[in-house]
Amino acid sequence: MQDALTAIRRAAPRKVVVFTGAGVSADSGIPTFRGAGGLWRSFRAEDLATPEAFARDPKLVLEWYEWRRGLVRAAEPNAAHRAIARLEDALVVTQNVDGLHRRAGSRDVVELHGNIFRTRRVGDYERPDVVWFGEMLPEGALERAAEAIREADLLLVIGTSGVVYPAAGLVPLHRGLSIEINPEPSTACQFSIAARAAEATPPVVDAILESRHD
Ligand code: NAD
Prior knowledge:
The protein is an alpha/beta fold. It has one domain: Rossmann fold, CATH 3.40.50. The chain has 8 helices and 10 strands. The strands form 3 sheets. It has a 6-stranded parallel β-sheet with strand order 5-4-1-8-9-10, with helices on both faces. It has a two-stranded antiparallel ribbon with strand order 2-3. Strands 6-7 form a two-stranded antiparallel sheet. Helix 1 packs parallel to helix 8 and helix 5 packs parallel to helix 8. The structure holds nicotinamide-adenine-dinucleotide (NAD). The site of nicotinamide-adenine-dinucleotide has 28 residues, from helix 2.
């Protein structure tokens, strides 16, 4: 942690991109797909969040989304979401579909995988407006994220396992200072802080804001 904070103070980054995955919302009580609590009834998320699962059993998939919406409605943004929102000029690129970054006050958010509170019509059903495994990302979202990440002075990667493509391909695009926050660091960032998002994000954001006043 100390080395990462020193590097931030030295770099005094202006252009910051924050790239988040399910782990940033874990501290709000929303389960990740792969970790503990990732199962719903006896189903794995990877077997429900697919076009094939929806074609096979739409009611089951819709019930699962209703359960997930309930979890998100009952949850609050945590200290990590709130700290990120203090970086008013940062771009937030998230793989999450829970809308917690906007609820915390972040204004510029690219939702690479959509949002579970929106729906769109397919055949006889309204389906959640999210990206399922094997589907394309919303037009322009990946391009905007890639361009911002290439140009950023600092890339903060929080709570993502880096295994879900094409989003996982974004981190290697960045050449400058990069810092990961994850109890189990998994991406190739320059600095890794092995800690929970809600614990480590606020001091990192403090260091960024303070570096601009030095
Ligand atoms: P993922 O692949 O992004 O993995 C979760 C990561 O979070 C892991 O690396 C884990 O070590 C880390 N993590 C766990 N607790 C943490 C904490 N307290 N602080 C920081 N990091 C922590 O996510 P996934 O769950 O495998 O999901 C795959 C896809 O589904 C992604 O698109 C993901 O964003 C989406 N998803 C979204 C939500 C949501 O919107 N809240 C929830 C589940 C899954």
